[in-house]
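#help-structures
NK: newbie question, is this the right format to request a structure? protein is Stage V sporulation protein AB
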Amino acid sequence: MWVNQIILAVIGISGGLIVAGGLFSFIIELGIAADFADRTHTADKILLYEDCVALGGIVGNLISIFQIHISHGSWILPIFGLVSGIFVGCWAMALAEILNLFPIFVRRLKMVRYISAFILSIAVGKGVGALIYFYKGW
């Protein structure tokens, strides 16, 4: 009986590692870490950024799977929410950049002068959507 459990655990861990490795490589391939390193002029630390992306995913999965309780962690929640929102926003913008979404919109809608308002409205819309989502969950 325990042999079946070990085999299932190995299969589950292997599948999880493959999916997580694919996700991390996708995030790295989008250039999110490279863009951050470029904008902060810390290109010599790019491997550290990539390691932090992988480590953050691993720690997040461990906390999620084993439901690790962090005592007095309620003060961490707003910080975690802010950092997660920044990450998801950067990921969405990187995907849009890869798909050449903004150049097409700018050219088709002739909105060169209003590009900053367009990006700001996306950020505000995501923020309001998150507030509505979490407010309804309360």
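mod (FA): yep, format's fine, and the tokens are attached above. The two ends are 43 Å apart (CA to CA).
NK: thank you!
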